[in-house]
Amino acid sequence: MSANSAALQALIFDVDGTLADTERDGHRPAFNAAFREAGLDWHWDEALYGELLAVTGGKERIAHFVSRHRPAFAQLPDYAERVAALHKAKTRHYTQLAASGAIPLRPGVARLLHEARSAGLRLAVATTTTPENVSALLVPALGPEAMAGFEVIGAGDVVPAKKPAPDIYRWVLERLELPASACLAFEDSENGLKASLGAGLATIVTPCDYTRGQDFSGAAAVLDSLEELALSDLRAWLSGAAVSV
Ligand code: XBP
Ligand code: MG
User: Fold this and answer.
1) CATH 3.40.50.1000 is held by the domain 10-21+104-240
2) Where in the chain is the domain with CATH 3.40.50.1000?
3) Is 154 close to ligand 1, i.e. is its CB under 6 Å away?
4) Is residue 158 exposed (0-12), middle (13-18) or buried (19+ Cβ within 10 Å)?
5) H helices within 16-78, ranges in order?
6) Do 151 and 120 touch, CB atoms closer than 8 A?
7) Which residues touch 49 (CB under 8 Å, ≥6 apart)?
8) Region(s) of the chain under CATH 1.10.150.240
9) Fold observed for domain 23-99
10) What pLDDT sits at residue 135?
11) φ, ψ for residue 146 (rounded to 5)?
12) CB 130 less than 6 A from any atom of ligand 1
């Protein structure tokens, strides 16, 4: 173990793109359903959504789209309320879809969570998405006790500055009462990696369809999936040793 690393005590997971491939066929159609329901002619196709993902957070993403593509909408007197209502409807559509079990976890995720818990590691979530989306996704995949397995859930608006700001990871570390050197983060995107690195966390990146090809400089490892990952690899990564999987 290197001088500045502690023993591994906790794993902190991003949700969207990391635990499950949620964006293209989960969040995106939920946004589109909310726009349709509100009588708007907005439609985010796969390519446009890929561009909009540069901005994390659903409300923030809607505002980004408006500023670029529908600037007149931002002049409406009740603009902020409209964005909030659109996002609330989007969350309703997303949770319905996720709760139906339509969005599977990525390969290796359920096994790693189970093994880590059995080995006494503490688990936490650090995500930009709305808290109810996390349980809607995880309960069908992991069972009714899914959320109890995570000691800290950092989600959505608990911090004002979303990823790539490190705030959500710092918020989770404070509640775990652990230094970053005792934890590993799991991310799928450059924005997420910037956030975790900003909080001083060694980070394993498993890119998803939308994030493959992004800049993952500074990651402890970049893997296709968590499928082949063993807990012994994680301990070695934390201590800075080179590991090949
Ligand atoms: C996830 C996101 C989220 C979801 C939408 O980023 O960007 O905004 O796309 O979630 P990360 P909400 O994986 O880096 O946390 O609409 O619930 O905000
Ligand atoms: Mg992500």
Assistant:
1) yes
2) 10-21+104-240
3) no
4) middle
5) 28-37, 46-52, 58-69
6) no
7) 23, 24, 28, 31, 210
8) 23-99
9) DNA polymerase; domain 1 (1.10.150)
10) 97
11) -50, -45
12) yes
Which amino acid type is present at position 64?
A: H
Query: What are the distances in angstroms from CA 88 to CA 41, 49, 61, 79, 82?
Result: 18, 19, 13, 14, 10
Residue 93: which residues within 8 A CB-CB, separation 6 or more?
29, 30, 33, 34
The response to whether residue 207 sits with its C-beta less than 6 Å from ligand 1 reads no
The pLDDT score that the predictor gives to residue 4 is: 46
The parts of the chain modelled with pLDDT lower than 50 are 1-4, 241-245
In the chain, the amino acid numbered 44 is W
pLDDT of 5 reads 55
Ligand 1, residues 94, 127, 129, 187: which to mutate, most atoms within 8 A of Cβ?
129
Residue 128, amino acid: T
- pTM, two decimal places: 0.94
Nearest CA to ligand 1 atom 7: 56
